[in-house]
Design goal:
Layout lengths: L1 H21 L5 E6 L6 E17 L2 E8 L5 E2 L5 E8 L2 E11 L7 E7 L11 E12 L14 E5 L9 H5 L1 E3 L3 E4 L3 E6 L8 E11 L10 E3 L1 H35 L2 H7 L4 H20 L1
Parallel strand pairs: 11-14
Antiparallel strand pairs: 1-2, 2-3, 2-13, 4-6, 5-6, 6-7, 7-8, 8-9, 8-10, 11-13, 12-13
Helix pairs in contact: 1-3
The structure holds 2-acetamido-2-deoxy-beta-D-glucopyranose.
The site of 2-acetamido-2-deoxy-beta-D-glucopyranose (NAG) has 10 residues, from strand 5, strand 7, strand 8 and strand 9.
GO cellular component, one term: late endosome membrane
Keywords: Glycoprotein, Membrane, Signal, Transmembrane, Transmembrane helix
InterPro entries: Lysosome-assoc_membr_glycop (IPR002000)
């Protein structure tokens, strides 16, 4: 019995944790509106962390930067229809620029596309193909001590033959939203050829580009969270099966403790009596043969 309640407790705890992961923590909401219709074309909801390496006067240093959830959108640069020129390509895009709150000279660009250079299933899907960060270390020397350069530009290098992790992970069918509650960390630059390293971490993420309505479309859960979602029916099923077994066990134990009289009272056909009945019958038969 103790073991059963322990297992139950474990399951309840597990389900509780899933709940905590999918909500509760704070996140920022960033929207780009169509200049004519004022309907959003990009909505990004996420809690964002940056992991940046920067050159110091005597080497390198690593910092983690949390992007305040009160950050805003730069509507003069953000666009529902623009061309991003990068690595000799001109990519038709939608662009979101976030200006981190109280971080002068900082910006984060998110560029989405349906272009076939990326895995967009013949433009049926959109993907986040580039994330660029402009850091201004000079704005906060206490957080970024000994910075050699006052600013640093970090960007996802585009190579059509080697598509980045971020664009093969963050995508959805047009009209749908991408949904990923768990923490996902992606490289922005992990090749020293293109400057110091940078990573971005997104959590409690819901995003949609090429949006045509005011609210999110159907949510497509990212692959790493699908297993958790798929587990829930199994966990609930196991809990119910466990409860049935406990109930049955308790009943059988209780029943076996009852005096025979009570069992006969409730069910006169119970096996005690039944066995006796057969014995009597047998005796009768024997008696009959003897006669
Ligand atoms: C990101 O930075 C690269 C390199 O400077 C540039 O070519 C590209 O246009 C930028 N993309 C966006 C979306 O800002």
């Amino acid at each position: 019995m103790k073991r059963f309640s322990l297992i139950l407790l474990f399951f309840i705890n597990f389900i509780g944790n899933i709940d905590c992961a999918s909500g509760g923590s704070s996140k920022g909401t960033y929207q780009v509106l169509d200049s004519v219709t004022h309907i959003p074309c990009i909505t990004l909801q996420a809690d964002i962390y940056l992991y940046l390496t920067y050159y110091t006067t005597d080497g390198e240093s690593d910092v983690t930067v949390h992007i305040p959830t009160t950050s805003t959108v730069d509507s003069s640069v953000s666009s529902c229809d623009t061309i991003v020129s990068t690595s000799g390509l001109s990519i038709k895009s939608q662009l979101l620029r976030i200006l981190p709150y109280h971080m002068d000279g900082w910006s984060i660009d998110f560029a989405f596309t349906k272009d076939n250079t990326f895995r967009t299933d013949n433009e049926k899907q959109y993907a986040l193909f580039q994330v660029n960060i402009t850091a201004n270390f000079a704005s906060d020397p206490t957080s970024f001590p000994n910075a050699k350069d006052s600013t640093q530009h970090y960007y996802v290098h585009i190579d059509p033959n080697d598509i980045s992790d971020i664009s093969t992970s963050i995508y959805a069918t047009s009209g749908n939203a991408y949904y990923c509650p768990s923490k996902q960390k992606y490289a922005i630059n992990k090749d020293s050829k293109y400057g110091p390293y940078a990573y971005i971490l997104l959590q409690t993420t819901t995003l949609q580009a090429y949006q045509t309505g005011v609210s999110f479309g159907q949510k497509e859960t990212c692959s790493s969270d699908q297993s958790v979602t798929d587990m829930i029916p199994i966990i609930v099923g196991s809990c119910l099966a466990g409860l049935i077994i406990i109930t049955l066990a308790v009943y059988l134990i209780y029943r076996s403790c009852l005096p025979e009289d009570v069992i006969n009272l409730v069910n006169p056909e119970s096996h005690y009596n039944y066995e006796n009945a057969i014995k009597i019958d047998d005796e009768d038969d024997i008696a009959h043969i003897e006669l």
